[in-house]
Each structure stands twice: as C-alpha cells, then as structure tokens.
C-alpha cells in the first residue's frame, strides 16, 4: 500500500528556489555597488559625454600639469636625510599654498560642489592624526585638500605614477613597501616620532578601513594608526546625492567609468565633518584595537 502523505523532503514545493527562502541581510555587502541608471540619467550621460565631461576632463588635466612643477620645486634638492625633517616654511608658502588652490580648482572642474565643511579642523599640536571614514572612492581626495594637504600613508609604488607621484611626495608621505614586512612597523614609529617632534610637521591623514566600501557601514578599523596612542581627529565624509556615481568598490564599476559618470553630473555634493578631537585614555593607549574600535563606534553614530 502506498501512502499519500508527503515526506519531509517533498513538503516544500520543488518550484520554490532555495534562495527565495533566505532572509535578506540587515547590512548590505559593503564591497558591492551596483549603479542602475534610469532612462533620463542615461540620456544625460550621452549628452554630457559630448559636451561638459570632455571640458571638465581637460581642465582637470591642465590643473595637474600646472601642479606638477610646483610639487617638483617643493621637493627638489632635498636628499634622503632631508626627508626626516619637515619642509621649510618658505617652501610651503611658495609652493604648497598654490598647490592647494590648484587642488580646489580641480575639484570645481570635476563638479564636486557644493563642498560643505562642518566643525573645526584641529591643529597638528592638538591632533597629529586625521582619521577619515568611510573611505569609498578616489574622490575622497577632497579631504586632504580641505585639511590643508596633510601627509598621507601611501604605498611606495604610488610614487612612480606619472604626475601623481610627484604631487604625493610634496606632502611628505609615510611610504609603505608591500614586500617589506617591517615597513608598516617603521611607518608606525614615524607617526609617533612626528607627533612627539618639536618641528612643525603637517598632520598625517589615514583611512583606517584600508579599502573602499559603499558607505553602507563602517568596516573594522585597522589598529596600525592607533598604535602610537596619540590624539586623533575623526573626519566623516559624505556624498549626499540622489545618484551615487562616486562609489568605487571591488564589485562595481571600474575607475574610469566612475570618473566619467561623475563628470557627467551637473554637480556632486560633498560634506566633510571634523569631529572633536579624541584623546585616548590610558587603557586605549595600551590597547590599540580597543582604541580603534571606540573611534569607529563614535564615527558610526
């Protein structure tokens, strides 16, 4: 006799896809960004690709070409030993100040306006480190320009990029070599040395997430920047736009597509908020992981 009672395996209809029974995660995949353009947005991209975007691209390229000799003059004649000392005041006033103006001009040419800045940027004596998050795009370069061209932690390979490498060196960066296991440890010591030095070093800007996300959440901060135990100023960056063309993630549009789509927008709003300086307690100074987690929680509010 054959029973008509369905078994446990056959109780669920075979036509129901397995993935349909899954509950959507509360937090999006932070490394994925799918940009979907509606019809009017596509028409705008086509029109501006033939008119506005090429003009903007050439204007930005011109700004880079003008900035390169200034960056070269700011560092020319400085040997390896000289890089252990900050740039003299006369070099910064003659070359770095014009670089800031050219940087602001290039932001305007790319349509990154209005640029709204909230809060007060702390001095290097108050906060040797600027901690910026969320890091979602190469357009985050607006933060260094708004912060007066501080030093940055960067891969040493970036110094060989035409035009960009010379501009990077003019900010007196902390270089990290991927193939050198002791490179990061030396960078941490250099941050601590600059923070304690009597010389007038610029602030060091760090993206503690270490990679680009879609700003749906803050991923875990890497503790390296917090090992020195010095005060930091958290800086939050936002792009409050209806269409998000600036986000550059692992699973998403390529760099040139992100750049071109952004150039094809009438404008791209940017907000930068300088939060109060965070001074670590004794426990946080001894535990950089806890220090990093507490700053992350503060910035995620």
TrEMBL record:
Q: Which GO terms describe its molecular function?
A: lysophosphatidic acid acyltransferase activity; O-acyltransferase activity
Functional pathway = Phospholipid metabolism; Lipid metabolism
Q: Where mainly found?
A: membrane
Transmembrane feature ranges? 45-74
UniProt record, GO biological process: phospholipid biosynthetic process
**A GO CC term assigned to this protein in UniProt:** endoplasmic reticulum
Q: Which domain of life is it from?
A: Eukaryota
Instruction: Give the protein name, as stated in the record.
Output: Phospholipid/glycerol acyltransferase domain-containing protein
Species of the source = Eptatretus burgeri
Write the lineage as a comma-separated list: Eukaryota, Metazoa, Chordata, Craniata, Vertebrata
């Amino acid at each position: 006799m054959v029973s008509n009672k369905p078994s446990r395996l056959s109780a669920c209809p075979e036509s129901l896809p397995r993935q349909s029974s899954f509950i959507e995660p509360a937090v999006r995949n932070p490394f994925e960004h799918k940009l979907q353009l509606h019809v009017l947005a596509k028409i705008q991209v086509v029109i501006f690709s033939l008119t506005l975007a090429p003009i903007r691209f050439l204007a930005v390229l011109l700004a880079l070409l003008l900035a390169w000799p200034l960056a070269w003059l700011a560092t020319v004649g400085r040997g390896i030993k000289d890089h252990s000392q900050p740039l003299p005041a006369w070099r910064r006033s003659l070359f770095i100040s014009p670089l800031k103006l050219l940087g602001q001009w290039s932001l305007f040419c790319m349509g990154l306006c209005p640029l709204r800045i909230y809060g007060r940027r702390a001095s290097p004596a108050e906060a040797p480190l600027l901690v910026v998050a969320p890091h979602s795009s190469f357009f985050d370069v607006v933060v260094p320009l708004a912060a007066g061209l501080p030093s940055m932690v960067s891969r040493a390979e970036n110094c060989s990029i035409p035009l960009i490498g010379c501009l990077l060196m003019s900010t007196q960066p902390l270089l990290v070599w991927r193939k050198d296991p002791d490179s990061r440890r030396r960078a941490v010591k250099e941050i601590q040395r600059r923070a304690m030095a009597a010389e007038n070093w610029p602030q060091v800007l760090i993206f503690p997430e270490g990679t680009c996300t879609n700003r749906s959440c803050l991923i875990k901060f890497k503790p390296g920047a917090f090992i020195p135990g010095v005060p930091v100023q958290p800086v939050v960056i936002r792009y409050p736009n209806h269409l998000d063309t600036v986000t550059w993630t692992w699973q998403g549009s390529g760099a040139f597509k992100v750049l071109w789509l952004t150039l094809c927008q009438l404008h791209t709003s940017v907000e930068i908020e300088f939060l109060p300086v965070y001074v670590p307690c004794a426990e946080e100074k001894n535990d950089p992981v806890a220090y990093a987690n507490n700053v992350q929680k503060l910035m995620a509010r």
